[in-house]
Structures are given as C-alpha cells and as structure tokens.
Amino acid sequence: MPTSALSLQPGENDDPALAYALHQLSWYERAKARARRSHYASELLILLSTASTVIVSALRAPAVATASLAAVTLFLTGFRQVFNPNERWVSTSVAWLALQQAVTGYQLLAMEERDAVARRALLDRTIEVMTAESRSWTEQRLTNQAGSPATLAQRKPA
Predict the structure, then answer these.
(1) For residue 106, which of 97, 95, 115 has the smallest C-alpha distance?
(2) 3-state class of 7 per DSSP?
(3) Where are the extended beta strands (E) located within 22-152?
(4) Contact call for residues 114 and 106 (beta carbons, < 8 A)
(5) Counting beta carbons within 10 angstroms of the beta carbon of residue 29, is it exposed (0 to 12), middle (13 to 18) or buried (19 or more)?
(6) DSSP state of 8
(7) Of 116, 48, 122, 34, which is closest to residue 83 (Cα–Cα)?
(8) Cα–Cα distance between 28 and 34 in angstroms, integer?
(9) pLDDT computed for residue 153 by the predictor
(10) CA nearest neighbour of 17 among 100, 121, 150, 143
C-alpha cells in the first residue's frame, strides 16, 4: 500500500500537493518493479522446476530427487496463486500510469495556473488513484480467500 507519511524534500514546501503526488508515484514505481521481478522470477522458477522434474524422472534418478523437484514446483505454483505477482504488477502499473498522467498534466500547467484549485484537483486525483488500487488489491485478496480450501470448509453446513 502507498505510504501515508509525507516527507518533503527541500524546495517542495511550496507545492505540497505535487510533493505528495510525486512521493506516491515513486512508491508505485518501486511496487511495480518489485511485482514485475516477482512475476518473472516465479514463472521462470516454475518452468525450470517442471522441466527439471521431467528430466530427472527420465534419467531414472532416485524417487526422492523427482519427488523433491515436484514438491518445489507445487510450492511455486501455490506461491503464484496466493500472491499473484502478475495481478499485482498489472494493478500497480495501472495506478502508476494514472498518477503519472495526473502529475504530468499538473506540471505542464503554467506556474500562475497552479493555484489552490489545481493543487486540490491533483491531491484528489492522487487519493482517487490510491483508493482504487487499494480497493482492487483488497478485492483480489478477498476473492483469493473466498476460494481457499479453509474458507470453503468453514462454509459447509454442519
């Protein structure tokens, strides 16, 4: 989630709405990069572990080696389903782009046009983007929980 603490850099005190938007934009940039790396790493590791399981099995390696590689594949698949780095990458990318457009639009305004109304609009858009992304993240987590075996077992009538 984006941070709510605002740490202004020197010279940003003149425009705290822009400073706040830039701070959130920076957070989304880091979150987007982290999710992208997690997505690629999980996909690559799943491919490698799956291929390795087949190769080890074909080479008639001990059953423990084949079973261990299959267990790694199963774990990685579960990790991907639970944490869904691809969905996180998409949602943070969409939020970053929306916020980037708002900041760019604001920065393209002439200095005399950056009045209280324009600052309020930038702040409102920043909060709107953060709220939408947080809501999306929460809904995804609730959807994942709703389909989990533990949740389904709790719903069974006694």
Answers:
(1) 115
(2) coil
(3) none
(4) yes
(5) middle
(6) P
(7) 34
(8) 10
(9) 54
(10) 121
DSSP 60: T
Q: Which of 130, 133, 124, 131 is nearest to 105 (CA)?
A: 124
Res 143: pLDDT:
80
Mean pLDDT by 10 residues, the chain (158 residues): 48 82 97 97 96 95 95 94 91 96 96 95 97 90 69 54
Dmax (CA) of the chain: 75
pLDDT for position 147: 63
CB-count burial class (<10 Å; 0-12, 13-18, 19+) for 146:
exposed
Tokens for 105, please give them.
């639009």
CA 53/CA 113 separation, integer angstroms: 63
pTM score of the predicted model: 0.77
List the structure tokens of 137: 């993240």
DSSP single-letter state for residue 113: G
- SS3 of residue 145 by DSSP: helix
